[in-house]
Each structure stands twice: as structure tokens, then as C-alpha cells.
Amino acid sequence: MKRIQALLALSLLLFAGLNCGTENPVEETVGTSTVEISTGTLRGEVQSIDGVLIQVRLLRDGQLLTQTETQATYELASIEAGNYTLQISAKGYETKEVNVTVTPGQVVSLDKVALVALATPVSHLRGVLRDKATGEPIGEVNLQLTDKAGKVYETLTTGAGVFTFENLPVEQALTLTIAHAGYEETEVAVHPIPAAETLELRVQLTRLPEQEKLDPGQGLSLGSQAPAFELPDGNGKLKALADYVGNKNVVITFYRGGW
Ligand SMILES: *[C@@H]1O[C@H](CO)[C@@H](O)[C@H](O)[C@H]1NC(C)=O
Ligand SMILES: *[C@@H]1O[C@H](CO)[C@@H](O)[C@H](O)[C@H]1NC(C)=O
Known about the structure:
mainly beta, Immunoglobulin-like, 38% strand, binds 2-acetamido-2-deoxy-beta-D-glucopyranose, Thioredoxin-like_sf, CarboxyPept-like_regulatory, Carb-bd-like_fold, signal
């Protein structure tokens, strides 16, 4: 109780102190600085198609940044101000592209979009991406699918690891490529998909072994993986650890030179 009283007294003193100091220009500026808002929101609506999920992808300079799935309305928040292309697509429908400018601190409402059915037959691919060891889904991973002609389709996994590629060429071998930080780069051959069908795929990524972070002068601990390195031999020729891995045991000795 004594302590609380002491604190109260102290804060009253401080308060009084602040009050008498209002003539000080330094104190007057406190609390008036504004936080600059550099992001905005995009909002829109797509004429719903019975039971069909609509993919909304946001690209900047041709690079896929974020993606969301919807039945009708969508909202992309915290988007850095700038110019973007919004791709709206659904299975069996022509992809619609809209160029948009995101303004800081504002919500941009886009016109309602109606998708038009595709005239040509297409196929689709959907799947789940998981960590091979833990079975946990991996979200926010960029996946690229390449067709025979070299055309690249791009998508991002959802938080539940789900990925969707819609409107792919029919009966064509495709290659799925996944390069994600911390995992082995993975390539999956996708079998040709018949018209109007959706191939379901389960893909697993193998985590790369973690490399020990070392302070200068600190040795590796027993059983840990050595970092890749190159060192000059006695004749000044560079030798890499990778040259020996798998066929020899490696012993490193540091030779002080002759003098
Ligand atoms: C975005 O596009 C508008 C024209 O639509 C242009 O005036 C503006 O400079 C562009 N902004 C950026 C950051 O490229
Ligand atoms: C969007 O802008 C790009 C150039 O940044 C242009 O090539 C493309 O035709 C535009 N798309 C639409 C739908 O206006």
C-alpha cells in the first residue's frame, strides 16, 4: 500500500512537472507526430457462379504477390501503394485482368465483374502442399506450372497449403516446380489431364538440413553438417569440400608454411 502511494505521489509530481513545462517547445511537439500510412485496400465483387470458387490474384510487374479465393466478394488489405494487375479467374471461365492503382489509406472499390464461359475445353489442377516430415500444410508458397509450349502458370498456396491452377491445356504433360526457402527444390511431372477434369495432387516438400550458425572462432559441434568451403592446398590450388563428399573422409590440417 505504501508503495502504491509513493508511486501515486511520484506520478502527481511528474504531472505537475509536465504542466509547468508547457512553454518548452520540445514538449509541445510530443504526441503530435503522425504515423504515415503507405498501404491501401482493394475491394470488389464478381458475379457468382454456382458452386465455383473464384481466384483473385494480385500481380505487380508480372510477379504474383497475393491471392484469395471467393464465391463473390473479395478484399485485399494492407497493399503497398502502387500500380497492380488484378487477375480474376474461375474454372472454365475466361480470365479477366484489371489494372488498378492502390492509394495510401484508401479503399479502392472496383466495378463488379462478370466472367464469360470459355469456348475451348480446359483442364484443372488442385492439390495440397505439405512438409514431408511433419505432414503440416505449407502456406504462401509460390508454385509454377509449365506446359509443353513453355507457358508458365503461377499460383500461391493458401494457409491450408491448398493450391489451384485453373484453365490449363487439355491432355498435355505439365511440370510443376516449387522453390521455397528452407526446402529442397522440387519438380513434379503432372500427367495429362482430360478436358473439364480436375486432377487432385498431393505434393510433399523435404526440408533442407539446417546449417549451424557459427561465431568466428567457434568450432562445429559433433554430428553437425559442415558448411561448404574451399581452401588452398599446399600448392595453392583451391580444393572444395564438395569435391570429396561421398567418396572420402576429409581431415583438415592447417600448415604453418616453411620458414
Ligand atoms: C500508376 O499509373 C498511373 C497511370 O494510371 C501513373 O500516372 C502513375 O505514375 C503510376 N504509378 C506508379 C507508382 O507507377
Ligand atoms: C494493364 O497494364 C499493362 C501495362 O502495365 C498493359 O500491358 C495491359 O494491357 C493493361 N491491361 C488492361 C486490362 O488494361
